[in-house]
Amino acid sequence: MATPHLGAEPGDFAPDVLMPGDPRRASRIAETVLDDARLVTDVRGILGYTGTFDGAPVSVLASGMGMPSISIYATELFRFYDVRRIIRIGTAGGMAPHLQVGDVVIANAAHTDSQMTALRIPGIHYSHVPSYALLAGAARAAGVGDPPPTGRRRRARRSKTYVGPVLSSDTFYADREATNAELVAHGTLAVEMEAAALYAVADREGGEALAICTISDLLFADESLPAEERELLFDRSVQLGLAAFASA
């Protein structure tokens, strides 16, 4: 039976779901990564597909933008469609000075300024963390912690993958330089708009979740990825997510 926001039928979604924000990105993942992908929902233009990857069923569904939107779709997936694991494939603004555009951040925690969390468990500062199994699987696939390659020749820098906290903010256009500096001093790597809500919904619904974000721009420098390069670099986050599903 379809839900208010998803037109799919029972069994249409796989237990594992990749969740980009943009519906067009969901279509691109379905077309270029999944085998035998079929459209299972298009309510309100939020596109969802189910296919296979290396023989295992996998779905991809857009989340829209912001914590309220991803909370709706993640809740319906976990509660009504027997989805067990969701990995957000998104973008983030780099806050830590060692980050460069094109790097990937696997979020091992998500701070937030959202009142959604303040209202979730009154009087408690709820901690937003991902599934350890998914986190470990993605980190292993990325080679996080592996020794750097040896060799005398200097190589051009390639995009790197980091594991660390992110800030999930309700505000995209925010003037908070002092706050950002304190967050960076406390180890925060990047800012985005969905991970905290996804982690909370997964906890509440008994599921598992992870956010893997490509750094699309920097808060401390006038630098951002062109749209076409952004799409290509998303492939790395998708592959890390699929590897996490396979190994967790």
From TrEMBL:
It catalyses: uridine + phosphate = alpha-D-ribose 1-phosphate + uracil. It comes from the Bacteria. The keyword Transferase applies. Its EC number is 2.4.2.3. InterPro entries: DeoD-type, Nucleoside_phosphorylase_d, Nucleoside_phosphorylase_sf. Keywords: Glycosyltransferase, Transferase. Residues 17-234 form the Nucleoside phosphorylase domain. Pfam families: PNP_UDP_1. The keyword Glycosyltransferase applies. This is Uridine phosphorylase. It comes from Actinotalea lenta.
